[in-house]
């Protein structure tokens, strides 16, 4: 275990990725949830070793990412005058996150990642996410920043699996 230095506050600048997906909103949500399945939290909680957790994570997340939470923003805002289609997700992999948690538990402020799928006024579907390496670089620990760069690559891979071009900013 690594000890962390006390921080009163940290200022950070983050690049927001907002990629247009080729599918309409509902099929894009279905495809996203096929590629990023829900984490089987009950099953993970029953395992007796970290090695067993690692093995189940590989099975549960064939593309290295899992959904830890889902918010139907469309439903929550249904009676508002907004009219947007939108779903928010908490996405990550706790085996990957452990590589940061080991150094600084505060890194869990940004793990799992927040991702939003939404339809714009023209009906195009978007996936928006803050670049992980920016979030995790703010902890000032090269080992945590390295994991952030790994997550950049996983987000880029996910965008490509969804049929979008991964921005160069995710592939240094």
Structure description:
It is a single chain. It contains seven helices and five strands; from the N terminus they run βαααβαβαββαα. A hairpin with a 5-residue loop joins β4 and β5 (125-130). Helices cover 38% and strands 19% of the residues. A five-stranded antiparallel β-sheet has the order 1-5-4-3-2. With 172 residues, the protein is α+β, with helices and mostly antiparallel strands.
Secondary structural class: alpha+beta
CATH names the topology as: TATA-Binding Protein
CATH class assignment: Alpha Beta
Radius of gyration: 17 Å
Count the strands?
5
DSSP helical segment count: 7
CATH superfamily: TT1751-like domain
- Overall number of structural domains: 1
Strand content: 15-25%
What is the typical, i.e. mean, pLDDT?
94
The profile of the biggest β sheet is:
5 strands, antiparallel
**Spatial sequence of strands, sheet with the most strands:** 1-5-4-3-2
Runs in which pLDDT lies below 50 for 5 or more consecutive residues are: none
